[in-house]
Amino acid sequence: MENSLLQDCTLCPRNCHIDRTNGRKGYCRESEELVVARAALHLWEEPCISGEAGSGAVFFSGCPVGCVYCQNKKISRGLTGKKITIERLVEIFLELKGQGANNINLVTPSHYVPQIVTAVLLAREQGLDLPIVYNCGGYEKVETLKLLDGIVDIYLPDFKYVSAEIAKKYSNCADYFEHASAAVKEMLRQVGEPVFDEHGMMKKGVVVRHLTLPGCLQDSKDVIRYLHQTFGNSIYVSIMNQYTPLPGIEKYPELNRKITPAEYDELVDFAVSIDVTHAFVQDGETAIESFIPEFDESGV
């Protein structure tokens, strides 16, 4: 499966048709070689994902979205990471289990779906019994997600925009809403409504994240409204205020600031006003760079 899908790559909506098996790189900035920037216990996900022990986060380099404001741009631009084999990825999964991880958290995995499917199946043969989390930017193809049916237990996608204009400006994908909305429907079809264990840890389900951007409050409200009207309590919504302007964002001066408490409070109040109950919100000063881990190849 791996070679055939990567020789004419259409894994993501960019539909590059690049032969990634010969060393060429697609929009994601990666060839067929697995590149991982960090593999470690991560405590900064939603409480039902991280818990006290942490989520076993594997940060893949490259990204099919490429937002101008990316908080993880060091890896999303393919600027760092170590090339590894599928066999090493299997070992990493098992090592994270040995460290007490609550789950295996695949971060920006979309362009490596074929290799990930193989690795998870091999790891399960060797005793991996943790939930698999697919932590992505939301710009997904349903056909690719179907390859993950029975592989992924928890989907953790972003839902960045409703507006095609904003999506084009900041992520070069005017069709973002079209693909993200279809993706969440497929994710929910696969894993069903949320299931938690006795400790409040999610075992199956969909948590949709929305990062509030400066100047985009109305679109944020449109995102929350769409998710609630379409999926109700079948999913959880995570409303995040941790946007941090990083060096290079000066080209977009409107994004060169953090979200104000008043803006975030207005969005949360809006969610409450339309009866959103299955949600995570952030309190206090969370827009800090400590949310961005060191991509130093730890655990790789």
Automatic annotation (TrEMBL):
Q: Which InterPro entries match?
A: Aldolase_TIM, MJ0674-like, Pyrv-formate_lyase-activ_prd, rSAM, rSAM_sf
Task: Specify which residues bind [4Fe-4S] cluster according to the UniProt entry for this protein.
Answer: 63, 67, 70
Cofactor binding notes: Binds 1 [4Fe-4S] cluster. The cluster is coordinated with 3 cysteines and an exchangeable S-adenosyl-L-methionine.
- Tell whether RNA-binding is among the UniProt keywords: no
Q: Which metal ions or organic cofactors does this protein require, according to UniProt?
A: [4Fe-4S] cluster
Q: Which Pfam families match?
A: Radical_SAM
What GO MF annotations does this protein's record show? Answer: iron-sulfur cluster binding; lyase activity; metal ion binding
Q: Taking every annotated instance into account, which residue ranges of this chain make up the domain Radical SAM core?
A: 59-186
Among its keywords, does the record have Metal-binding? yes
Keyword set, alphabetical order: Iron, Iron-sulfur, Lyase, Metal-binding, Pyruvate, S-adenosyl-L-methionine
The source's domain of life comes to: Bacteria
Which Gene3D superfamilies does the record match to this protein? Aldolase class I
Spell out the PANTHER family in the cross-references. FORMATE LYASE ACTIVATING ENZYME, PUTATIVE (AFU_ORTHOLOGUE AFUA_2G15630)-RELATED
The protein, known as: Uncharacterized Fe-S protein PflX, homolog of pyruvate formate lyase activating proteins
